[in-house]
Write the C-alpha cells for this entry.
Amino acid sequence: MPRVALKPADLGISGWSAVLPARQAQAALEQDLECDYLVVGAGFAGLSAARRLRQLEPRASVVLLEARVVAAGPAGRNSGFMIDLPHALASGSYAGDSSQDLRNIRMNRAAIDFAANAVAEFGFADEAFEASGKINAAAGRLGNEHNQSYARHLEALDEPFEFLDASAMRDICGSDYYLGGLRTPGTAVIQPALYVRSLADALTAQAGCRLFENSPVQEFSRQGDAWMVRTETGSVRAQRVLLAVNGLIESFGYYRRRLMHINLYASMTRELTAVEVAALGGVERWGFTPSDPIGSTVRRIDGSAGPRLIIRNRCTYEASLSLPEDRLRQIARDHRRTFDARFPMLRSVAMEYCWSGRLCLSRNDVWALGELEPGLFSACCQNGLGTTRGTIAGIIAAEMASGRSEPSLIPDFPPQAQPQCLFPEPFMTLGARSLIKLKEWRAGREL
Ligand SMILES: Cc1cc2nc3c(=O)[nH]c(=O)nc-3n(C[C@H](O)[C@H](O)[C@H](O)COP(=O)(O)OP(=O)(O)OC[C@H]3O[C@@H](n4cnc5c(N)ncnc54)[C@H](O)[C@@H]3O)c2cc1C
C-alpha cells in the first residue's frame, strides 16, 4: 500500500485564524467508513470540490479528511485576494498571454461567483467575503511603470481600471509612501480563515457530508473497484477519491519533480488603538497588491478583530517542502522594516503574528489536475492564485469525478498539459533562489 511521506508544515500562527473566536474542530477519523466520494484536504480546492459534488449529486455521501484543523494550512494563511484578472507572477506586471487572459478572466470570475453564491446561500459573516475590487499600489518609478504597462494590457482586454495619484492613495491608506495606484473593480477580498471555516462548517451541517480534522492520510491503495485510504486511527473506502492537497500531492507519489514549492510570509499587527487609528488616517478597510509581483501586499481590516494591518512580502524557494525553524526571525525583521517605511506613525505598534505558508507552481503555469488512475483525481497546483484557481480546480475535479453531463460551472476550462519537469538539482534550487533574490533587489521600494 503506497505510504504518504510528508505531513503539511508551515511556520507560525496565522493571524487570520488567531483573531477568530475559538471553533470546535470536527473529531478525527476513528472508524472504518464507506462513502461515494472521499476528498483529501479541506482548503479552497477540497471544500469547493465537496460543495460541487453535493450540488451535482445531492444524495451522494462525501467525506473530507483534513490533516490539521481547517484553515491551519495555506488556505487560512494567505492575503485573501480572490483576483479575477490576469495574475502571471512570473511577468513583470502580472500581464499574461492575451489570448489566454480572456479565458482566465472568465474562469476566475466563475470561481468568484461560486464563492459569492456560497456566501449568500449559507449566510457567511460580512467580513468573510467582500466584492471590493483591489488596488495595485506603486511606491516608486518602477511600480508606476508596471502599472502603466498593466493598464495598457487591461485596455487591450477591454477591462475597466482607474489610476489613483499619490494624494488619492494617501486618502485611502493614510501613508505618503505610495506614488500611485491602479484600481480594478472585479476582485473579491476575503478573510481567508473565516471563509474556509464558514464553508467547511456549512457543508458539514448538511446530511451526507462529513469532515474529519486532524486526520492526515497515511496510506492509500486500490482495492477491487474502490479506493482504501487509511489514517492512523481509521480508514475510508470510497468509489472515488479527490486529492486536493496542493503541493503535497508529491507526497502521494504524483507529479514528483514537476512542482515548485514557494514559501510566502505575512505579519499582522496587534489591534490598533483609537489614537493610533487617528494618527494613521485613511479609510477603515483597504487592500493593496504590489504593482511589482515580488513586492509587498498590504491590507487594513476592521471587523470583529478590530483595526489591524497585515503585510506580506519575501518569498523563498524550498526543494524539500520543509523550512528551517529560525526562518521567521529574519522575515519578521524584514516585515518590521518594510512596514515602518510605509507607516512611520505606527512604529510602536507590535506585530502580533508572523507566519509562513506555501504556494505551489508549475514551470508552465498549468494545474496538476485530472484523473491520475481510475477513480483517483487530483485538484492541485494553483500557481499562486489559490483562492480562485483552487476553487476552479475543486469544481473541475468534482465534475470529472462525478461524470455528470450537466454544463460545467467553468465552461472555458481548457485541456491541461502536464506540469513540466523541473531542472535537475542543484541547478533548480540555485536558479530559483538567484532569480528571487534578483527580483527582490530590483523591486526596491515596492518590497
Ligand atoms: C502568505 C500567503 C499569501 C497568499 N496570498 C494569496 C492571495 O492573496 N490570493 C490567492 O489567490 N492566493 C494567495 N496565496 C496562495 C493560496 O493560499 C494557496 O494557493 C491556496 O491556499 C491553495 O489552495 P488549495 O486548496 O489548493 O491548497 P491548501 O490551501 O494548501 O489546502 C490543502 C489542504 O490539504 C491538507 N493536506 C495535505 N496533506 C494531507 C494529507 N496527507 N491528509 C489530509 N490532508 C492533507 C492540508 O493540511 C491543507 O489544509 C497566498 C499564500 C500565502 C502563504
